[in-house]
Amino acid sequence: MKKLGSWVFALVLALAFAVPAGNVQAADTNTAKLVVDGVEVEGYEQPFFSNDEILIPVQNVFNEAGFKVTEDKGVVTATNSYVTVDFNVAAGKIDVNGKKANTEFPLTLQNAGNYVTGEFLSSLEGFQVEVTEDQKTVNVTTNRVKDVDAFLEKTLQADLNSFSAALTIDQTMEASSEEDPIHMLMNLKMDAIQNPLAMYMETTMKMNMMGESLDQMQKAYVTEDGMYQYDSTIKKWIKMDDDMTNLIAQSSAQQADPHAQLELMKKFSEGVHVFEYDDKYVMTQTLTNEQFKDMMDEIMNLLPGLLPEDVQGMIPSEDKESSTEEAEAVEEGTAEEEGSVDEEGTAEEEGTEADIGDILEALNLNIEEYYSVQTIDKETLFPLDLSAVTKMSMSMEDEKISIFQKMNGTFSNFNQIKEIKVPEEVIKNAISMEEYMEELGLGEELEMEI
């Protein structure tokens, strides 16, 4: 026990000597209230004065300012993608956008937190620091847009009818029942016209699954002439059915259309921050578990066909008794009198289709992180690029799946694409969906399902 006590005493001494000599004792300080963009920031760590210089807690000020704050191996990073600040305790330095700042660090004398001077904070683009005359309040003002909803509404009015997009999705999925993770890397290039809707897409996908590699390349046209998709495995173009055409057209348009993304973001603007710089806006968004589920619900309402029927059936109807009565009514012919029988004499069941929120609940979905960033041209309000990081997990019974996804994309050729046409050669040589299924050896299975 004495030996353990000696080690503890030695450790305390070592930590005491680790504190930079230039820092003052906490007893010589007095605290102040922290206000960021008019909002008082509460918490254990608060600004304090040292030798007439205000010191501000790092995590508190950047969290309230709408930055993403993370900590890894002693390095605290605050970023909105345009401004990135790394507070490195071990190296005793601060890096701003990769360059060492001329300031002393760390300042960790109060409540074991990391603090920076008001002078340093004011040197960052987009920050201003003022202290009241009585030194009781520290007002930090940022370059955030005050009315986010009005800004989003304004961007939706931008005159954008055609564009090119290049997206990369890098995803790793780990399942508790599998030893090796599944890795997928997908690259998408697209030219799109919004009115009338027309698209040309090239997609390459590389996947490593269960020790095997899968490489696939696809091309697709979506126009008024229909949807044609090229499958590199059989080296042929396929004329998609009308239902599939409408579904994929809607899905692709929603995924790559920056206006659609902004419209969706407007409905979940609580976690949205917009930073104004000289020639661009930087817009960030975070989502909680509940917000993510609500957003998925919204997407499925826009694109109901995306949810497979077998997935819809995994959640039972909440009102089985009423469904049974309705079925009996059909047999007795009473349902027709109530107007619940369609032209073919079958009853339309209400409430039997699974709600995406119920499905996500059943899967025990947990969003550990969702953070997206979009850069917008200040003059045209056209999107320039975007990035997003999503970490989530889900489980059912004894199976747990973790997913980590990174997405990056750029936009260009604004209003430069005048027409997208399906080449005559593609239309002439395309095979039907039935022929495609037969080529894949799925024709018999399809007939049995029908």
Question: Could you explain how this protein is built, in words?
Answer:
By secondary structure, the protein is an alpha+beta fold. It is built from 14 helices and 24 strands. The strands form four sheets. It has a twelve-stranded mixed β-sheet with strand order 19-20-21-22-23-13-14-15-16-17-18-24. Strands 5-6-7-8-9 form a five-stranded antiparallel β-sheet. It has a four-stranded mixed β-sheet with strand order 2-1-12-11. Helix 4 packs antiparallel against helix 6. It is elongated and about 80 Å long. It starts with a helix and ends with a helix. The N terminus and C terminus are likely disordered.
Radius of gyration from the CA trace?
29 Å
Q: What would the principal axes of the Cα set say about the shape?
A: elongated
* Helix proportion: 25-40%
Query: Between the first and last Cα atoms, what is the distance in angstroms?
Result: 77 Å
User: Stretches where pLDDT falls below 50 for ≥5 residues?
Assistant: 1-29, 305-327, 334-353, 446-450
In what order do the strands lie side by side in the largest sheet? 19-20-21-22-23-13-14-15-16-17-18-24
Number of helices: 14
Largest sheet: 12 strands, mixed
Beta-strand residue percentage: 35-45%
Which class of secondary structure composition applies to the elements? Answer: alpha+beta
Tell me, rounded to a whole number, the average pLDDT.
Answer: 79
Number of strands: 24
